[in-house]
Structure formats: structure tokens, C-alpha cells
Amino acid sequence: MKRQPLRLAILEATRILEHAGVASPRNDAELIAAHVLGVERGRLPLVPLVDPSVVDAIGQLVTQRAKRVPLQHLIGWAALGAIAVSVGPGVFVPRPETELLLEWGLALLKGREYPVVVDLCTGSGALALAVAHARPDAVVYAVDNDATALAWARHNADARAAEGDTPVRLYSGDVTDPTVFAELDGLVDLVLCNPPYVPEGTTVPPEVAEHDPHQAVFASEGGIDVIRHVVAMSARLLKPAGGVAIEHDDTHGAAVPALLRTRRVLTNVRDHSDLTGRPRFVTALRG
Ligand SMILES: C[S@@+](CC[C@H](N)C(=O)[O-])C[C@H]1O[C@@H](n2cnc3c(N)ncnc32)[C@H](O)[C@@H]1O
């Protein structure tokens, strides 16, 4: 059968996704095409013509994406820092805005040898694994209370270890339990946390509402229920000059920093905005 221009297949996919209300239709169309072809997105211009079977395969995934199945579920991975993790049903898809929190954490670790790092609410394990990749000398602990999320994290941890990264220590636990990681009290250089923080009842896009686990996204008390416990845990885990970074909702730019300021041991409390200028994460140091 006659080969067809890839460019036209991508244009058609973009049109369908735009019509379906997908936020970044061209980006998603290109990543789907790259996935089907098994090439990096940047190499798509080197593929002028494709078989009809490729156009069909792209079309099938585009139909799924138009139904607002997350792109990352269709291609099977999401990136954070210098790594990619496998994702799919039952686990939260790591988001680009979490890159900034990771960057802050890695900057804090500069000049510290063999740092101890804790990732609270690890989900797919993305933050913990990105730190372990960037800092092979770090001892990285990670915890989540959801069995399905932990199964994805275990899979990702095994895959990263097989690539030569230092293994992370994965635990099943609830961050609202005041005894979690008690053996690390006062020993931790860095606490990272992207917890559930969207206020219950908030309207979210179909990708989130129908595909991210509810308990990974939403929290009670206007979205700060889990964060309240993470702040308390950070205050006890950190060693002097250790630091904590916690992602939050864009409506929490005042409330979450205020929560950290109630802990006398935490100093230098600062809120940070994401790439769109919205309040996104808070940081503090242990005095
Ligand atoms: C927003 S997701 C973040 C996942 C990952 N850190 C990331 O950035 O991609 C929040 C995670 O917190 C977990 N979680 C929710 N409540 C928790 C709790 N009380 N204790 C431990 N983990 C919790 C969920 O299962 C979910 O995996």
C-alpha cells in the first residue's frame, strides 16, 4: 500500500486533539507519533513517509487521547529530571511543575556528601529516583500508602537500579502517622514532597478526574490536610541546615508558608512560583 506523509498524519492528529479540548495538541500528536515509530520526537522530521499501518496505529492512540486518556498512559512513561518512569492506571503521573521542586532540592544538596533524602508521598517514585540518579552517593528513602502506587514505584526502582542507579529504599506507610521514619529523626538533609493538595470539590480536567487516583490528587481541609502532617514530619526529620520542599495548590501561597512558620525549628520559609507564575511550592531550612 502507498506510503503516506507523516507530516499530514501529525497535522490530522493535532486537529482532532485540538477539537477534543486537549491542552497541548501538537505536542501530544508528535509524542504519539514518536512512540508509534519508536524514535525520539526530535527525529520525526527525518521520517518523511510512513506505512498505512503506522498511520492507523497513530490514529488509534489519538482516538484514546481525544477521550482524554492521559498522554503518559498511552506512551507509558513520564519524565522528571534526567529520568523517565513508567506510569499507567493507578498511579499519579509526574508533572512538569515538580521539576522546580526537584531542582531546589538538588541545589540544596550541592557540597554535601552522602546526603540522606526522604521523598514523602512518592507515587511512581519519580522524585526519589530522580534524586538517586543525580546523586549516586545519596541514601534515598521513599514512602507511599497506596499499594498500586508502590507497585509502580517498585517497578521503576528496579528498572533504575538495573541501569546502575543507587537503589532507593521504598516503604509502605502513611505520612499522617507520627511514627513514620522515626529512626531518621534529626538525620535527614532533604525532605521532598509532592502530596495530594487539590481542595476536595475542585473541578479538574478529565485526565485528572478520571485517571489520577483520587487520593493522589485531593486532600481535605481545603487541600492542606496531608501537608499539615508533612510539615510536622519535616520538622522532626531534618537535621540542622537540612531543607524541605513541599508542593502545594496555587491557592495555598499564603496558607502553607504560614503553616511552616508555626514550627520554630523551621527558618527561611519561602514560597516559589511555577513557570506560569503561580504559587507552587514552599521551602524551609532547619535552623
Ligand atoms: C500528587 S501524588 C505525587 C506522586 C509523586 N511524588 C510525584 O510527584 O509524581 C501524591 C501521592 O501521595 C500518596 N498519598 C496520599 N496520601 C498519603 C498518605 N497519607 N501517606 C502516604 N502517601 C500518601 C498517593 O498515593 C500519591 O501516590
Describe this structure in words.
It comes from Prauserella cavernicola. Residues 10-76 form the Release factor glutamine methyltransferase N-terminal domain. This protein is α/β, with parallel strands linked by helices and 287 residues long. The strands form four sheets. It has a seven-stranded mixed beta sheet, sandwiched between helices. It has a two-stranded antiparallel sheet with strand order 1-2. It has two domains: 4-67; 82-286, Rossmann fold (3-Layer(aba) Sandwich). The chain is 40% helix and 22% strand. It is elongated, with a radius of gyration of 20 Å. The site of S-adenosylmethionine has 23 residues, from helix 6, strand 6 and helix 9.
Poorly predicted ranges: none
What distance separates the N and C termini?
70 Å
Name the CATH superfamily assignment of the largest domain. Answer: Vaccinia Virus protein VP39
Helix content: 25-40%
Q: Give me the CATH architecture of the largest domain, please.
A: 3-Layer(aba) Sandwich
Helical element count? 11
Beta-strand percent range: 15-25%
- Given this structure, which CATH class of the largest domain is correct? Alpha Beta
Shape: elongated
Largest sheet strand order:
7-6-5-8-11-13-12
Order of helices and strands: EHHEHHEEHEHEHEEEHHEHEHEE
CATH topology of the largest domain: Rossmann fold
| Domain tally | 2
